[in-house]
Amino acid sequence: MRNIESFSWQGQAALSLWAYSIYGTEGAVSGPGHAVRLRAGMSPISSVPADSGSIGSNPAAPALHDSIVAVQHSLGGSLEAALKRRGFSCLEISGLSSIQEDKQQRRLETVLMELFRDEGSQAAFRALHAQAAPQLATWVLHCMRGRPPVADPVEVAQDAWCAIVRYAYTFKGGSSHPFRAWARTIAANALRARVRWIRRMETCDHRTLCNYTDNSLGPRRRAQDAEESALLAHAMVVLLAHLGAALEGLAPRDRRILELLEIGNCSRDLVAREMGVGPSGVKMILFRARKRLALAVGESLGCKASVLSRPARSARAAG
Length: 319
Fold this sequence. Notes:
Blueprint (H helix, E strand, L loop, with lengths): L8 H16 L5 E2 L2 E2 L32 H8 L1 H9 L12 H22 L2 H23 L8 H14 L12 H25 L15 H30 L3 H12 L4 H8 L3 H23 L9 H8 L1
Antiparallel strand pairs: 1-2
Helix pairs in contact: 1-5, 1-6, 4-5, 5-6, 5-7, 6-7, 8-11, 9-11, 10-11
């Protein structure tokens, strides 16, 4: 298991700021009623001074409480003024106990995230990453402690920061929804998603990954289907011609009941009233008309159709 010193903070910062430039440019990080934008041609990293103490130039990513002067320098005058407008001053960190200092740092992270969410402040995001990245990476390592090393903690932390940038508009903020708890929830989801992805890849046979199965019809099958469709259409035309001729050869009553029931889709009660017979009579006439029509079509097509009679009826006829 890697320790915290094995993390490349420059790499995480570069990827997170790259995600900010991708999702932030032209309002890609957008929520209800606002959009985050970068100035055209601005590099996410090049605009940071080399001695600013930010994540891009300091591999140790110093915490804000280590040096109040470094904090004020890294935040910059405009960002410090924006924090003061939201009721936070960097000087509040000095002279506090460790517990009070941690609360102030949590509050600072939340205020920086609110600035990034509301105004798309690049300086706020840089300061947020410098402040929160080490703690978030340590928490990811803590979650993976005692488990098989199925996922790379660096990749999990990178996925979490990309999700933070992409879904910045969902951050609620305030004292009831601090940034640290929200970021840890995102990191936990990123860890679970990466573990699921790795396990899915492990169950796949690498020999079959490149064997793409083409389920589309080949030229021979397409030609065969086209020929069969043409033959079926021609056969249907022939069958309809013989069926029409057989229908014309039926008795008027048989032809009328077939027209009403099969073509007109009338109810049997209506047919019974029109033909002056009862419902049972309609059923018998329809049965005999269908039988005669089938025999006529079979004879017209040259088929030797044989209609089997019921055994009981045959016995009565023989007796």
